Each structure stands twice: as C-alpha cells, then as structure tokens.
Amino acid sequence: MELTSSQMETIRYQFECFCKRLLKNEKNSYARKMKHVAENETTFSELSQKEMDELFTVDEYPSEHFHFSVDGEAVPIKSESLASALMKLTPQKRDIVLLAYCLGKTDAEIAQRLNRAQSTVQYQRTSTLAKLKKYMGGMFDEQT
Question: Whole-model pTM above 0.85?
Fold first, then answer.
C-alpha cells in the first residue's frame, strides 16, 4: 500500500515535530544538569587552602617520632634535626627545654619539679635554647 503525498507530508511533519521535541528536551535536560553542577560542585582551583587541607589526612605512627622521657612523661618529637640537637644536650638541660616548650611548664613549675632555683632554670632554658639554635644551624631564623 502506497502512501499519498499528503500522508507522506503528515508523516514528515510528525517526524520533524518529534525531532524538535527531542532536541528541546535534551537541551532542557542539559541545562538542568549544568545548573546542578554549578550549584553543587566546585573545581579544585576554586577551593581555599583550608578546604584543600581538609581533603586528606596524614597517618602518623609513634615509630616515626623520637621519644624523650622527662620525669616520667613521654615527649614525642617529630623533627629528626630537633631530636638530634636535643640528644647533644645534657639530660638536665634537655629536661628543662622539653618541660618548658613541649609540656608548657613555667620556670617556677620546672624549678619546683627539678628542685632548683627558678633563676637557674630560667638561665639554663635561655642558654640551652641558644645552643639548640646553634646545633640546628639557625633553622629558627629561617622559620620566623
């Protein structure tokens, strides 16, 4: 059975309408997807440093630290150069530095803990800090 020319034209118009509707719906779907992406996704280049830092974690293991014992308390040190410099100190001076800077003790608390005069503790802490700076090759100057 052959179609008449008017039937062929009707079919052609229906197909054209179908194609136009298909393209319009695809365009709308793509626009919705792009709107969703714009509202909900961010490129890495748009993230702040704080947000970038939250994207990962670093595993730390106790075996990666150097451990010093101060009056029964364990003090972990991450830096190999600092640990090496601390090992060059006498045990008494090392204890004073670790108590002051790692455990946050005041000169008075350290003096009481080590049975020393507060002025002695203060002098040894400042002089030992200068020695540490020398041992570490002025690394403190570079960081400040």
Answer: no
